[in-house]
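Technical annex, item 7. During the second reporting period the consortium partners agreed on a shared format for inverse folding records so that results from different sites could be compared directly. Each record opens with the tokenized structure and is followed by the designed sequence. A conforming record, contributed by the partner at site C, is shown below for reference.
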């Protein structure tokens, strides 16, 4: 079943007449993990924002969870995670995770039960009463992921969520994210400019070329799952990285 359908989408920013996207067509299956990969400025974030109904495309159509992006946003069909988790510094970890539920007027007992489940999932139960500035960058981003998932969306949209983290933390969080995905069965659209990250995480890597942003290749990653961290050292993995890198040649 198709969860997100992008049909011939184009985006021109009128302010500077930048053609950010042109003729992008893409279907994402329910439960699929796809990455939007490309160098900076090729329109990945623009496409994610269009899917999230934070931007209107100038041409083409998008369907999300069987309706318009606006319906999907209003019906909380997706959670979104940004490069920086933008946590509220005066609220504890638990209170940050519960924030969307407060906005939805979910009763306190249910909020607590759901934030408890999230804290367990992101392995931060010992930090439930900590404030964001007492956490490492990786822990803060885990709270950001929990806050996006606490509303139990079908879809998780992620915009370079790990790019501000060091290599060790990034790899660990990639593993965490795959466990969460396997457990929660969400559809994930993940924006990155890191080839190995896209290969490690994805079922399919969608390669974008810049100016104007076009979908220039789609690579199916048929590595077995679950994917242990050491899979990055296998010949098969290295081959996929080379294949994706090769798809940029001539761009
Ligand atoms: P990416 O996420 O791949 O780095 P973006 O989607 O952020 O790319 O940007 C694609 C292009 O659109 C870039 O040339 C960028 O400068 C331009 N752009 C992005 N956002 C805006 C905006 N709000 N107004 C005008 N131009 C924009």
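Designed sequence (site C submission):
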């Amino acid at each position: 079943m198709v969860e997100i359908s992008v049909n011939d989408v184009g985006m021109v920013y009128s302010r500077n007449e930048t053609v950010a996207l042109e003729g992008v067509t893409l279907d994402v299956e329910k439960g699929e993990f796809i990455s939007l990969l490309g160098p900076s400025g090729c329109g990945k974030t623009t496409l994610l924002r269009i899917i999230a109904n934070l931007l209107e495309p100038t041409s083409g159509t998008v369907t999300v969870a069987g309706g318009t992006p606006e319906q999907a946003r209003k019906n909380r069909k997706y959670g979104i995670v940004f490069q920086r988790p933008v946590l509220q510094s005066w609220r504890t970890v638990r209170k940050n995770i519960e924030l969307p539920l407060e906005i939805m007027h979910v009763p306190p007992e249910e909020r607590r039960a759901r934030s408890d489940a999230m804290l367990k999932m992101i392995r931060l139960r010992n930090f439930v009463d900590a404030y964001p500035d007492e956490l490492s960058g990786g822990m803060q981003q885990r709270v950001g992921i929990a806050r996006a998932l606490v509303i139990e969306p079908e879809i998780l949209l992620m915009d370079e969520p790990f790019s501000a983290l060091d290599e060790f933390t990034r790899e660990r969080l990639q593993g965490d994210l795959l466990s969460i995905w396997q457990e929660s069965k969400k559809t994930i659209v993940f924006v990155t400019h890191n080839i190995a990250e896209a290969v490690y995480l994805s079922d399919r890597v969608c390669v974008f070329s810049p100016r104007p942003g076009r979908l220039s290749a789609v690579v199916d990653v048929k590595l077995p799952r679950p994917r242990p961290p050491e899979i990055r050292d296998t010949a098969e993995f290295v081959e996929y990285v080379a294949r994706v890198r090769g798809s940029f040649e001539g761009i």
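The helical segments are 44-51, 69-74, 93-103, 108-121, 137-149, 167-184, 195-201, 235-246. The chain has a mean pLDDT of 95. All partners now use this format for quarterly exchanges.
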